[in-house]
Please model this.
Amino acid sequence: MLSVRQMLSEKGSAVVSITPNTSVFDALKVMSEKNIGAVLVMEDEELLGIFSERDYARKVILAGRSSKTTEVKELMTSKVYCIDPSRTIQDVMELMNDHRFRHVPVMENEKVIGVLSSGDVMRGVVAEQKNTIDSLESYLLRQ
Ligand code: AMP
Model:
């Protein structure tokens, strides 16, 4: 089964982060520029939280707050669930399903080495299924 480390090597280990006092507006700009749905909140390599589009929709727009005067640290989720690179794609799916979020930082030796999204998981599952089908097909053709 595909490991988290293999998924990261396919995807690359870019980590997009902002500092806690970044405004929500600037956080959204970063997410838009990088075409991602969540951003890690970090200070000196320490992971302090995560901020996603869902936080913006629910805690800013619906709550009538201003994105320019609200700092990310006021709204971020501070208890971030991470995963070790030795775990599997199945573990990532379970974590995402159990907690209903779509982003999981990968942590090794207390350092963030990448982030996986539900899109990455979907791509991984499809690639794995394609591999299985390809090997079954070539096995059958050899019979
Ligand atoms: P998402 O589905 O990733 O947009 O996130 C939904 C909610 O879960 C938001 O409040 C996020 O801040 C939070 N969240 C996203 N990823 C994580 C994570 N790995 N650990 C804890 N909370 C998270």
